[in-house]
Amino acid sequence: MVKDLFGKKILFFDGAMGTMLQEAGLKTGEMPDNMNISHPETVIKIHEKYLAAGSDIITTNTFGCNTVKLKDAGYSKEAIVTKAVENAKMAARAYMTVKPRFVALDIGPTGKLLKPLGDLHFDEAISLFEETVSAGSKAGADLILIETMSDTHELKAAVLAAKENCDLPVIASVTLDERGRMLTGGSVDVVIALLEGLNVDVIGFNCGLGPQELTTHAAHALSLSSTPLLLMPNAGLPCQAADGSIYYNVTPDEFAENMKKNAKNGIWLLGGCCGTTPAHIEALVDKCAGINPAAVTKKIMTIISSGSKTVKFGSDFVINGERINPTGKPHFRRALKNGDYSILLQEGISQKENGAVVLDVNTGVPGIDEAAVLTSLVEQLQEIINTPLSIDTSDINAMAQAMRIYNGKPLVNSISGKKSVMDNVFPLIRKYGGVVIALTLDENGIPETVEGRIKVAEKIIAYAKNYGIDREAFLFDPLTMAVSAGQDARLTLECVRKLKKIGLKTTLGVSNVSFGLPKREILNSAFLYLALDAGLDAAILNPNVQEMHQAIKNFSDGKPFSGNAAIDALLGKDKNFFHYLEIYGKKQSEDISIQTKKDNVPLSEAILKGLKDEAKNSAQRSLELHSPLEVIEQELIPALNRTGQNFEQGTIYLPQLLMSADAAKNAFAVIRTAMGNGADSSAGTIVIATVEGDIHDIGKNIVRAMLENYRFNVIDLGKDVPAHTVVEAVQKHSAKLAGLSALMTSTVAGMEKTIQALRKAAPDCKIMCGGAVLTKEYAEHIGADFYGNDAMASVRYAQKVFNSGNIQTSKEFKAP
């Protein structure tokens, strides 16, 4: 099996299929996947060229083979995938006598954003990928290659589809930008945390960048990954030839020389993406002959992630915010029962702002469908917060559903040493990935000694091995007990020390210690200080309490804790708490919490934080005091501008940008009603479209959302739009600006054709364009007036075209 070779022998993939198909005559607008059936001899010949160049693994011509893209293909997906695998295997058989050859079922992205950023649900994405996997594995593919993924959530859907529908090895590869980020903000750290949690066989990086640009990111991946790595860069950047054709600027020799360095550093699987040819692969195989890459080594890390952020336990102290929990909070219970989560979302934002780097999410309320509520709350929190979440439930069905939908590798709270609990939870950890909070208790209850609790921890580690789960997957909680009930905090602190000594990570629920005593925040912060001194790695606590932060700061600065009475109470020096109660028992409790609930969130804040319900309510309150135009110009537009600036500066990523846009839409809806007839005008009309032959519309949809929020009337023609349709729309709406998008190299010609048609029929219309295959220089060459590398750049240009500057005072308004 090919899996037996991963990390033991250098394996060479093939290069670009699309590039070769274009050379073989693929026309603009034709679907490459159809050629498996219409021109099988062409596809087989391309496979043979790569095999002759030395490829160990060839990929099927199925990159775009999913229901979304194949809607009008003329052939069924099963027929295309089956024929694609047969073509590849036919080619491979002739080269088996030289060395083993393998066929990888190639699976690309759907071309759509998943909810909440787009309109494709996570489960729908899984279903689309399932169809391809089932057909390909049935046809005889040797492995699965999931490639060119730009969204961690879609990546997870594809991996789950592969693992749930076949037993083949799975390679999962993503696309990075120059900063080492995916489109939706995921970093190399995030990718490795997610994919190692999902137990893929190889982690890859392909497309987007050339071999030199990918080298830095590959080196970082090598420092983190315990899994073999694949590298498949482009042949540099797309360039424009004198005859108008596109070529890539890295020669085969240059490509191979750069890849040789990566092989020596420890990359075991090598291949090429856009622009690479059999010549590139032949040079690659020749240059890397005889290299023995650095061995794949296990990295000892306890790490969780969201879609764009990781948290590593064992370095900096980790605050796990405890506040999203209905226990003792009637208003939270009501909110969960009524399905109105706005107060919980605000609580999440507040905890993050006050220092929480993980948020515990508990929805345990009697009488509700906990699985549905927990899953919904997890989804909504991930819409507006990039902080990793802790899924806190004892309902195994709720845990399973929340872990499945979760975008990233979660923290799971919690298990114990009870066999029945471990047998329920460990299969979920093995399948979805995660770090588990493990309580040191079992069927015999809570051990009364340090040694007893350590034995439970060791029992959990030993049992987890049966499920293939390593010790790094645990945070051990030696249990915080209430000192007011006669429990000794020193036992817990000693457990932390001993667990730390044997190399295990620890966490505690800090606030349990002070139950039944006054001024709990004083005791809690003192206990936290002592636990930090014992080596505590993380804690579930209220980050909105100033004393907790002061305890952390004092410990970090090497300063003693100031509350001696609290320390004495915790360490058993103050019998019956006489001294502590003398100091704190008769005093009124002061409000030392940082404010968490905001009943009247300002409109600008609601937009910046992506709070949709609060944006609507805030707009309504603002309209009671100001005219609609004043609300737009003084509150809404400045907030949108600030969001745009944050995006351009790289301090927020695409998910935050779009959630702010959604919040602004809610506000616009309220303002539109107040404006009456004035709401029917706009800041200018813009026609946008994905050009003919291209069925990718993610970038276009993002641009549309931002333009609409800046009051432009956007006529969205959709995807795969012929040139004459664009011209007709521009003429019909007297549009002064048109926006064109293309992602596929093979459809750039369609963009040029559309631009030429517009120049002839509507010479006064300005044209902006964008897409992954374009550069500023090439956009100028094909006649565009402007190249936008992101959504905000398009907004800025639209403002310039319509002379709206930074949105000056205007009586015109168009609601999204």
CATH H level, superfamily name of the largest domain:
Homocysteine-binding-like domain
CATH third-tier fold name of the largest domain: TIM Barrel
> Runs with pLDDT <50, length 5+?
587-597, 805-816
What distance separates the N and C termini? 54 Å
Rough outline: globular
Let me know the number of strands.
Answer: 25
What CATH architecture of the largest domain would you give?
Answer: Alpha-Beta Barrel
Q: Please state the average pLDDT score.
A: 90
Query: Which range does the strand content fall in?
Result: 5-15%
Identify the strand order in the major beta sheet.
Answer: 1-10-7-6-5-4-3-2
In CATH's first tier, which class of the largest domain applies? Alpha Beta
Largest sheet: 8 strands, parallel
Structure description:
- The protein has three domains: 2-287, Alpha-Beta Barrel (TIM Barrel); 315-584, TIM Barrel (Alpha-Beta Barrel), CATH 3.20.20.20; 603-801, 3-Layer(aba) Sandwich (Rossmann fold), CATH 3.40.50.
- The protein contains 30 helices and 25 strands.
- The protein has an eight-stranded parallel β-sheet. The chain has an eight-stranded parallel barrel with strand order 13-14-15-16-17-18-19-20, surrounded by six helices. Strands 22-21-23-24-25 form a five-stranded parallel β-sheet, sandwiched between helices.
